[in-house]
Amino acid sequence: MKLNEDDLQRILEATRAISSTLRLSELLDTVIRLAGEVVKSEAASFLLMDETSGELYFDVAVGEKGGALQHIRLKKGEGIAGWVAEHRKPAVVNDVAADPRWTQKGDQTSQFKTRSILAVPMLNKGRMIGVMEAINRADNQPFSETDVQLLETFAAQAAVAIENARLFESIRQEQEKMSTIIGEMAEGTVLLDVEGQALLTNRAAHSLLGSALKVGTVWKLQEEQFAIRPAWDDYVKNPRGGPIEMVRKGAPPLILAGVITPISDDREKVTGTLIVFANVTEERREAKLKSNFISLVSHKLKTPLVSLRGYAPLLLEKPEELTPFQKTAIQTIDRNSQQLASLVNELVWYSVLEGDTLELHREPLAIGTLVEAALLDLAAFLKQMPAEILQNLHTLPEIPVDKTWMKEVLRNLIENAIKFNPKTPRHVKLGGRIDGEMLEISIADDGPGIPSEEQEKIFQKFYQIETHFTGQVQGMGLGLALVKHIVEKHQGRITVRSTLGAGAEFLVHLPLHI
User: What is the DSSP letter of 97?
Assistant: First the structure.
């Protein structure tokens, strides 16, 4: 049976009404009220599906004492509504007393007399949302096929509206949750849209950046007050996560540091940006003072050390002119001055690492040339701890590196390969190969190896493997931290491969071009 013009008009008006709101509670009330109007029934109810248990429960009901129904739950397949949900098709029962599926739970609770029911499933994209019921036609006539068509059509529209409202409610709740979390964060937090306009800010951000930052303002405007790295225009060209630093252009000094992170959708399209930052002004000031102090101390120590390192070997050139006590004393002075010189160097490294003051002056150089320079620096050390060093570097191309600092990388790795190897004879192999756009340099030894759980930690400042494993070795545990820092400054990376009892191999990857 086709719907007439009046029926279609009622459906159209009802659909308009449920499309006018996205608030879930308001929508459900509207849906159930209109369900009764669409088929002109005395009452209507709406049972939602519990997807976990498969039970139906009354969410909204209209009519006398409709609110009392909200505590009732129907098990899977129970009652006429349960049958409709299970079979996913409508049911018309014009005499409920004669239908074995009928359950009187609702009438007993609400004191409402049900004579007839029209129940239809509510489906959205094949998923059962619930069951809509119209109870007792207002004119005491039986429900007709036209009523079924009307309620089915309305239920289909209502199912879509309810799912949209649920989604909107979920997004709203998540936004409120995010706003609460961000608002309570001690760090300044700013959420930007794809155009760089602020969508969300917190109190800490306002405190650090001032009143100029508020929802709707453009992040780029902060560049009027702060020197920002990366600048917004540079970030937009290549949006990827990383550190961000903001230094106030005027007085008093203010340095903010944190991370900038692009937010992407499931298609990897950037839809926004999250910036989290904190005030590091005092930390930077203290780090600079510390770095300056260490640099000053190391410089003052170097002056007397030059004399010690220079004169002690000269005194030992004619051992026949020395008494046994004098010879032993000078040898002790020479040995300890070398250790002190090594510690002073590590103090210099520490100031570089802490202050991030490393500057590179790159030039095309052969790795073999740098290795020879490193070995020359290690000449005195190699006399005390002899090792066979095998090189296979002559075919490698020149690469752009800082001569001083890259020599330090190689010297440190070669020295470690020897001094942490307790057995004799010691062997170190140096090699390399081209790996795509990178040059891979290998420094391998035949020492005790490095435990797998230690391999990530050895690049941390002040970290040393337990002495019972490596032997008593002098040092502050800064060498590999400096090596990693220098390599990364060259846009490279360093890794280690090792098996216990079979030595270790350090791999330095450096770009062939810059």
Answer: G
